[in-house]
Structures are given as C-alpha cells and as structure tokens.
Design a protein that fits this description.
It comes from Isoptericola sediminis. By secondary structure, this protein is α/β, with parallel strands linked by helices. 48% of the residues lie in helices and 12% in strands. The protein has a 7-stranded mixed sheet, with helices on both faces. The N and C termini lie far apart (65 Å).
Length: 299
C-alpha cells in the first residue's frame, strides 16, 4: 500500500491535494517548475526520492502538451512495477494509448477524473478512476485520503479499465455545463423582471434549502451574487476546457441525443462573439421577407 508518493503539478488543485494527502499521513514529494512551491528540483529528483519497489507518481498538470511532456519524461525514469496516475482532464483515448506504451516498460497507468476544484482541500475530491484492478487496489489509501468523508461509493468509483475514469469525468463535466447554463438563464430571467422581482440574490438564496433545484453549484451562484449582485465586475466571455466538446462528439458517435449539454456548449461559444454574424443574417432575412426594422451597427 502507498505510504509515500510523488505529485507533479502544484497549482490550485495539486497543492491542495498534496496538503490533504499529508494530513492523512501519506508522505508526498511534489515537483513543480516554480521552485518556491516545489519539494525537489526536477522530475528525476522526484523519482529518486520515492521508495521502491513500487513507486507511484500522480500527474496533475493541464491536459494536452503539458501532460504529454511530463509522461514522456516519466516513461524514461520509471520502471517495472511503478504506477503513473494521470489526474488531469485528458481524453480517454489518449489514456489508452499511453497505458499501452508504458505497459511495454512494465509501468502501470491509472486515469483519474478529479472534481472538487479549489474547495477540495477541506471538502474532499470526487474521484472517478480507470485502470487495472491490482493498480487501483494499491492506490486505495491515496483515493481514501482524497475523497470526501463518508461511504466510499459516494465519492469514489472504479469505473472500469484504463480510460473509464476520464470518460466518466468528461460526462460529469458535460452535465456541469448544462446545470450551470440552467442556473444562468434562470438568473437572467429573474434579473430582467426588476419591476416585480426586487431581490434576485435573495430569491436564489431561498432555493438553497428544501427545493428540488438545490445543489452545490447553486450555493456557489449565491456566493458569487453576494459579492457582485449584477455581475458588473466581470465580462461575459466563458471559456471551455474541452470536455464539453468531447461529450458532444461522443454523443454523435453513439447516436445519443444531448440537446441540453449541446446547447450549453454553444452558449459558451456565443459568449465570445462581440457580435453575432448569424443573428445579423436573421435580422437581414426578416427585413427582406417581411420588411421588419433592423438596427444600425454599433460601429
């Protein structure tokens, strides 16, 4: 069982995960390019600091090239019996390819979807993992330290073989898109009826207990409104980190209808447009067939 592990990436989530693991009695050697937060100077030094015969390194860096680069370097440092845990938001198909490459060196691979954000240090993290049964069993002390208090099955799942963890997290994040969009649209409709709804923040706060729409996301919405009731301090640009797109792609490949999640993803795209060429086209068409009025461009 794991008593000492490596952790690569000490950003907002990684640093908190290191602290939560240490509080649970698991020794953690962390590496980050920023020397002020790192325990060692390099990935090689991190691997050297870990006891054998079965070393565990958890990678918690942004998906894409940063993850690929770290895993490529680790492949040359780890050996037979060691295990890599990929805790970012990589695409599940990449997990399967990486696992096959590392298996040739005798290195195990477990992919873990992690949910909890900056609140995970105190609340724990929801964990969805994919991998070999033996590798997952070896890592259970780590998972138990990171997950929320309470029954294991309410904050942790071994969803299946390699790739299953990130696939489950992808769907989780797609659902998150839809939930956030629904709360956002409800907020906008309440705010639009200022003559009748005089306390938008209070209305949403009243939904936090006893209602069927109560949730942690609603709690965070109410918290945000406390600081900025009309969201005047922020722009309406909303980024997407990839999981929503992958979720919609999977829906198309499997012929599964996802109208809510798809619409939420497209709403994020529309948030980035200073003006909408498509809606300009609609206005022009209405003018052409019906003589409807159009407004001049702001420019």
């Amino acid at each position: 069982m794991v008593t000492h592990m490596g952790l690569v990436g000490l950003g907002k989530m990684g640093a908190n995960m290191r602290e939560r693991l240490r509080r649970a009695g698991i020794e953690v050697t962390g590496f980050d390019p920023r020397p002020e937060v790192s325990d060692v100077e390099s990935l090689a030094a991190l691997v050297d600091a870990l006891p054998g015969p079965r070393r565990v390194v958890w990678v918690m860096v942004p998906a894409g090239d940063p993850t690929r680069d770290v895993l490529a370097e680790l492949a040359g440092l780890l050996g037979e019996g060691d295990v890599v845990v990929e805790g970012g938001n990589s695409h599940y198909a990449e997990d399967q390819a990486r696992a096959a490459e590392l298996a040739e060196r005798g290195v195990g691979y477990v992919d873990v979807g992690v949910s909890g954000g900056v609140w995970g240090l105190e609340n724990g993290y929801g964990l969805m993992c994919g991998g070999d049964d033996d590798d997952v069993a070896e890592l259970m002390p780590v998972f138990d330290a990171l997950r929320p208090e309470g029954p294991r099955e309410e904050g942790f799942v071994h969803a299946g073989p390699v790739g299953a963890g990130h696939y489950a997290k992808m769907v989780h994040n797609g659902i998150e898109y839809g939930l956030m969009q629904a709360y956002a649209e409800g907020y906008e409709l309440l705010a639009a009826k200022k003559g009748l709804i005089t306390d938008v923040h209070g209305t949403m706060r009243a939904w936090q207990r006893g209602t069927v729409v109560r949730s942690w996301l609603l709690d965070l919405m109410v918290r945000a409104l406390e600081h900025d009731p009309w969201f005047e301090a922020i722009d309406d640009w909303v980024e997407d980190s990839g999981e929503g797109r992958w979720t919609v792609d999977e829906a198309i490949d499997n012929a599964v209808p996802l109208p809510v999640i798809s619409a939420a993803l497209f709403a994020r795209f529309s948030s980035r447009q200073p003006e909408s060429p498509a809606m300009k086209s609609v206005a022009a068409l209405r003018q052409q067939f019906g003589g409807h009025a159009v407004r001049p461009s702001a420019e």
